[in-house]
Write a structure and sequence with these properties.
The protein has 262 residues and is α+β, with helices and mostly antiparallel strands. The chain is built from two helices and 21 strands. The strands form ten sheets. A three-stranded antiparallel sheet has the order 13-14-15, with no helix packed on it. The chain has a two-stranded antiparallel ribbon with strand order 1-6. The protein has a two-stranded antiparallel ribbon with strand order 2-5. The two termini are 19 Å apart.
Length: 262
Amino acid sequence: MLKTLNTAATGMKAQQSNMDVISNNIANVNTIGFKKSRAEFEDLLYQTDKAPGAQTGLNAVSPTGVQTGLGVKTASIQKSFEVGSPRITNAPLDVMIEGKGFFQVTMPDGQVAYTRNGAFKRDPEGRLVDGNGNPVAPEVIIPPNASGVQIDPNGLVSVTLGNAINQPVEIGNFELAFFINPTGLRSIGKNLFMATPASGQAQVDAPGQNALGGLAQGQIEASNVNIVDEMVKMITAQRSYETNSKAIQAADQMLQTVNTLR
């Protein structure tokens, strides 16, 4: 009976982790470039009373054995990097990646972070920065007298100086990073990711090259969270949590019955 209590408790703990992941997805349903996560589970060790294939008699072996599972644990929380739906803004500094890849930004400590959030701004020096003031890498500086900004699908950034009749002037290029295993990236908040040994080193190329997505100006990428799917997952997790609590109650009642034996 004590095994039942511990096993059901691991189930409740696992579903609590599942609910934490689901609630974070729902909370970020309107976060630009957010990537949903899912909790993955694995069973724990087994108590083996009889191993499969154990000798049970002369020229006879056990076809299945006797193994009792001891519960479940959260094995990993994996992000899904499927592209979110486009949201039209018509803002000249809003850029969406139509496919795989990450924008690069330089952190205050000099490290490079990666993001899918293309809602860029201009800082006081004219640099193109993200919402936290981290400049885009490689750096793009928009002149103060620029009257228009054009970003083509291949990442070329041009501005119109003075009158609109003037020819656009090239001022820089976007470069996108991609990873062999993007699910191995470390989330650090603020829509940013950092490379890890699991993700591999960033490989950098121009948008539209090497299977990278092209850029779309005047659009941003919405979260890839499907609120209906998350609600269904939440109901399933809640019911699983309740069922495990019922198993604990049943085990408690059985222990109570044993204690009242005369």
